[in-house]
Structures
1.
Amino acid sequence: MLDRATSAVITERLGDYPAVALVGPRQSGKTTLAREIGKRYFDLEQEQDRLRLDVEWDQVVAERELVVLDEAQEWPEVFARLRGEIDRDRKRNGRFLILGSVSPVLMTQVSESLAGRLSVVELAPLTMGELDSKAQRTRHWLMGGYPDGGVLSGKGFPIWQRDYLDLLRQRDLPNWGLPAAPQTTQRLLRMLASVHGQEWNASQIGKSLGLTYHTINSYVDYLEGAFLIRRLAAYHTNIRKRLVKRPKIYWRDSGLLHATMNLTDPNSLLDQPWVGASWEGYVIQQIISSLQAGGVIFDAFYLRTSDQHEIDLILDLGNALWAIEVKLTSRPGRDDLSTLNRNADLIGADQRVLISRHSDLIQSGNQTICDLDGMLDLIHDLR
């Protein structure tokens, strides 16, 4: 089994809270990781496991063993039971590990029943830093991070990704409340792939689908809650320039994006006119996922002004502000760094990082030029 960086955070939170909710997309490895941490396991998607938990409830909660409840959103009644049991002994921590394939925004039972009683930890698909071999790391951008999606074995992409999205749009998303027909969801996903890395314009997408922008935004809320899409917020600050206020839209997993765009091999990827946006989104996701896996508290933004000053990723770490620029090149130039510094000066960034495909690490004061590996090393030092 691959070591997951998130496991240390889960163990730490279980020491501080009665319950921990481990959320993330289906097939990201939640069940495998949870069963390594706790042996008392119930899959609440299965009727027999729900019955077993119901019958054995008093015995289960009386034991000192960690209880793992998988796909908890499929059996909402369990949340009221959990609240009552936790409140009976609030000083006892590390009792329940609750797994869910939708975010707490969609798991309303978590926010309503267990507020203040649990900590939420997100598990993303495999990050580049969690992979063992050079071959796995090389195909990670093309195939994405889902363990069964080809990144580990080199087999299955893009068929696995297409089947995964088909199951989500036909079964899971409707079950979680998305009112769109599966065919509409499929068209929406293709359109979202075409605007990956661009400013979000719900009205434009809505016109193409014959829907209002309110409806499109509500649909994307579900896709975001299912960990398919990320809306990266625009950074707001007081500078003498007019700022773009719309978020940017990104697919979280590059393999799902590429499968939706009918890509099959790395050479085809490099030939695409949107390859730069794909690389930018991939790098941003790796940074954010690695920070989350390390338990780092942060906020993420991008910056764009009306006269085209731009920063791809801004990390607000509370005590420091990082400005990060992503380039798909192995030969970053002085102009690239000068542009980053000029834009970073607008927001008073404490650290400036230029990420390219050049493997040498170059640091001078608060300026760093590195590849993605080097950036992940910098993140590791923040933990």
2.
Amino acid sequence: MKFKKIVSLALAAVMCFAIAASTATVPASAEDTHVLDLNTDSVKLAYIPISTAGATNKLVEIAFKDMLEPYADTITIDYFDPGYDVQTQIQMVNDCVNQGYDALFIECADPVSLTTPVAEAEAAGVACITLNLNCEAVHSLHVRGVDYLAGYTAAEVLAEEFGADSAKNVVIIDCPAAMTSTNLQSVGFFDYMSENTNWTLLEDRNIDNFSQEDANTAMRDILTKYDNIDIVYGVMDDVTSGALQAIEAAGKDDGSIVVYGNIGGPGTLGAIKAGSKALYGLTLSDYYTEMSVAMGLGLYFAMTGQTAATMGLDATPEIGLKVFPITPDNAADMIIISRWPMTGMV
């Protein structure tokens, strides 16, 4: 199988953090920056996802805990739950800035609405590290799985297995409409499909808040509209699981409809492990490594007081981590790599 090459920066980033942590200096022009000693000074961090309801947050917490264990006496991290509400998330970001947090880890619920609060946080000396879901403001760092390549790879895997020249009919269960500019799995999938196959896209359905329930409802509706669906691609675990539930409820989980997902959490990995006939595979994002990289570099920003403003950046630095295709043939080994067994959920 031939996949496009990407540069995986995970281990390099962690090593860079380790080196920077011991040699950090502050530019002379950055008068408002400071240097903290992580072993003796108090540091406050905040994690503000779109919601803590998603299963992936469990692995985020484990990765953060492992990275912060050497600094248990000095570093605290608070977890916030905006409940998928953009305005609540904006208020949480503003409150954390006012309360003197040193760095914020944010999964932006809306790339436009979060622009002003993130820009204001950076200007106030609070580094913002966005996770997977980006915003338009220039900020300290964006860490993500390679979303475009994830979709591209998914289509490539399916084409090689089920035939690029076959007349397949495809449905995409997509991210919320507001996130389409920064969430590119479906774009990658469609690009490969349109450039390399004879498949037809029946529908690309946006799901509010990545809701499993809404994805279930949407898939039920789609099943009533089309009786010729061959492939369903879900851009995130929750929407993939919702689509699977609808397919199972309709009695079409015999393999006649092939489902392929993205990210790889306990629900989808468990389904592959259990031998699901409907869920053929997924592109696994190594969430544990991704969040470890984000935390390592977030500590560097918190320690030095540097932000995009103090560094004079005119664009947000990005780190993209490699994705791995999982099918029934390699599922057992890849589940171990995923670290989900650490949570006890797989």
3.
Amino acid sequence: MSNSVYSVVELIGSSPDSWERATANAVEEAARSVGSDLRVAEVVEMDVLIENGRILAYRSKVRLSYKAAGVD
């Protein structure tokens, strides 16, 4: 078995619709930034932005790992 090294980045995705969409937005942005080597996404926190008693946005803090460049 070969050794592997992964980098980790943390993003906060938001959506007016749901935590699932907020999470997907964070993952999609990470894919655009670091490419297709994403391995695992872990939702570490969820919250909502509220104004006048109404939810404006769902937010997901997502920790994503991806294979480090040049390391096998």
4.
Amino acid sequence: MKKKVEIVGSGPAGLTAAINLARAGFKVTVYEKNQDVGNRFHGDFQGIENWSTEENVLIFLERIGLSLRDAGLICRPYSAITAFDSGLNPTVMRSGEPFFYLVMRGGGSGSLDRWLLNTALEAGAEVIFNKRVDKLEDGGIVAIGPMAADAIAKGIVFDTDMEDIAAAILDDRIAPKGYAYLLVNEGRATLATCMFKEFKREGECFEASKEAFRKAFPRLQIKGEKEFGGYGNFFFGKPAYENGRCYAGESAGLQDCLWGFGLRYAMVSGYLAAKSIIEGREYASLVKKELLPWQRTSLVNRFLFERLGNRGYAYVINVLGRRDAVGEIRRQYAGPFWKRVMYPLARWNYRSRLIDRGCHGEDCACVWCRCGKGEAC
């Protein structure tokens, strides 16, 4: 009889785990409280970053069972980013390798979420929608996404005649301690502001970001726009494995702290959760080795970034414009000794934000519990 594994959440982390477990011969059931995958998204473009490790991310993902070169999936490399400082002075940052691979989120055809779902079903996993699961009595994998907002994004998706481009603006007036971005691919576009501070200014900052991109690209046309919003969560110290449950993706606080890129963390942690079950290995040790060093470095990078201000952003943009930008960013993620020394300071600085508010009682089987009494929220 096949061993049964239950997974809560049909995002990239949960479905990556399901794919690997099903291929290994496990009976996998994924529960999703919404009626379809990608419910949080609306066809907006995101990126799978390619700068935190030397190995190309697509090659790495193939090694963990995800071949994103599939013709049925929108996955486009972007090897140049046009970056603007607060004065809207442009610098084209280039690299011999892609900065990131653009993917579409949501339930539509060609989206990452739809592709992962189809791949999981083909592998033999069962996915049950409209099913909220508050407890996993027999353990399993929890991959329910973020439960708090450490960064937010507000934006629009739209049609445009503009050529394909990736562009970003670093300006604390329109994206406090974050960035505004424009991604165009084959006539579809996403424009948004990503904020790490001053969330109450969300609407004001978004309108300012839209106006800034219109000034930067006079040919930019916005047709049939649809609004979207999102948020991300990162924290440290949550047990990766507890009471028989593996926590993956943002439900484990796994997120790039500097730019908020979480897709790679989600898929890798889903794979590691599956690997721990398949091989009988300790999930917490796998996460500690494969993900935490990069996340800790990203927290130090965020600590340093927030001290730059607009003049500092302009300096960094100019430096990256003169060098192989991906190579330079990789050096910032390589975890040099001095950044390891700075990590305790960075963590102390963000101590109020790096909090897991879940219940950790020994008899608690809750998927996520905030009450501290073992009652599912």
